[in-house]
Amino acid sequence: MSARARGAAGHAGGAAGHAGGAPARRRGRADLAIPAVVGAPHRGRMATAVRDLLAASGLGVDDVDLRGTPRRVARIWTEEFLSGYALDPVEILGDPVRGEPDPEVVVIAGLRFHSLCPHHLLPFRGVAAVAYLPRARLFGFGRVARLVDCFTRRLTLQERATCQIARALCAHGGARGAGCVLRAEQLCLALPGERHDASEVVTTSFVGALQGRADLQARLLQAVGAGPAAGPVWPQRRRTARARRR
Known about the structure:
Blueprint: E1 4-8, H1 43-56, H2 69-81, H3 89-92, E2 106-116, E3 123-133, H4 141-152, H5 158-171, E4 177-186, H6 187-190, E5 200-208, H7 214-223, H8 241-245
Parallel strand pairs: 1-5
Antiparallel strand pairs: 2-3, 3-4, 4-5
Helix pairs in contact: 1-2, 4-5
C-alpha cells in the first residue's frame, strides 16, 4: 500500500464565528462548524486544564521547564489552532475586485497551513493550492490565503477543510467553479511507528464548473507536488545506517 493516501473531499461544514456578540449572518451548510462552537476560548481555563493534564501525567508542574507551559499552550492554541473559528468566509470574500476581465483560471499555490486533528489533538501541516474560475469578481491573493486559514486553524479533518475552502469560493465568492488540494503530514499517522513516518495525505475537492476540467485538476495537483515523483511535503532529516539499526 502506498504511503501517500489520497482522499476525495465529501460533505463539509464551515466557519462559524465565536459566540458572544458576533453579528448574525447567513449560515448555510458550508458555514456550520464541526465540532460545534459553543463559546469563545477562555485562556485562563485552558491554562488550568493544561496544568491538570501535566499533573495527571505524573509530572512536577512547578518544575522550571513546566512552570510557564500552561500559559504558553493556552496562547498558542487560541492564536494558532483555534483562530480560524473567529474568521468569517463571507467577510473574507466580501470585498472583491470588480471591472477586470476574467482570466480563465486563478491558481494560488504554495500556501502553507497547519491544523489540529480533532480525534487525537495532534497537529498536521502541509501546503495548499487553491483555484477558482472567476465570474466578474476577483479576490486578492491574501484573501484566498486567509480563507485557507479560516478553515484549517481549527479542530478539523483535512478532508473537511479541503471541501470547505472550495465550496466557500462558489457559495460566498460567486465563482463558476473552484478547487482545493491539501497535501499534509499527519502526525496521528506518522507517530504510531516508523512504518508510516514518511506518509502524507493528499485531499482534493473540485466543485462547480471545475468538476469537469481534468486539465485544471491535474494542474492543481501538480501545484502541490502531488504525483509519483513528488518529494516529501516537509524535508526529512536523513538518518544514518547506525540510527536505522537501533
